[in-house]
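Deliverable D5.2: sample structural annotation.
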Amino acid sequence: MALSGRVAVVTGAANGIGKGITEILLQNGAKVALLDTNETAAEILMEALNKQYGQERALFLNCNVESEEQIKAAFQKTAETFGGIDILCNNAGILNESTWEKTVSINLTGVIRVTYLALEHMNKLTGGRGGVIVNTASMAGLGPLMSCPVYTATKHGVVGFTRAMAAASTVSGYGIRVNALCPSFVQTELSSTITSKLGQFSHLAAATQQCIEKTRILSVSEVAESLLELVTDETKNGEALMVFPKGKKYMTFPSLIP
């Protein structure tokens, strides 16, 4: 998929990985709707993006992925402004084992909710143009992060949902590819504050910090470049791309169907 003129929606777009995703999509010619609840960070980012790319390429919409009403309004505004939607990057996420219900609500339920509402605009069976959805998961979606059981569960859920949705889209003829991005530790606020948000597993903070220190922290740009691969390579569907400091690896899963 060539990105020039394509329309992308990025959740959690104002900071961290979402900011990197937004920037790399704009660099490659896409128009981007930035969805986030952090208005202050979004305004600062939008000012920079407008200077670099012009006022017609990026749009900020205050949107909480826990709100169906806000998501619907954001998609509608994006479609009206840019003429449709081709790419969805489900990136909004938190890590806080103390508020585990909210972690599930944002990290997993939010991904499902946003995806289903995006289908109303993207599904070829209902007048959409098709396209691609990339869900930001984590290495914790492929193996357990012992100090973060709930975060691990949500990211496993994202990987499973991604793979099932990709298969459903293919068989149903939606015209939408669905992939998951699974980075290791990334240079973001989420990673830098992880040891203070372990809740009842705070006694594992030192072990978690040792795990982080053993691995070179990925830059946001490295993660964004991997996402770009999942967006542009039309052979990639139902993939979980693990991004390590030493390189990338597409995961293989056992088949449950003989």
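Annotation notes: The chain has a mean pLDDT of 96. The CA atoms of residues 48 and 86 lie 24 Å apart.
The annotation will be released with the project's public dataset once the embargo ends.
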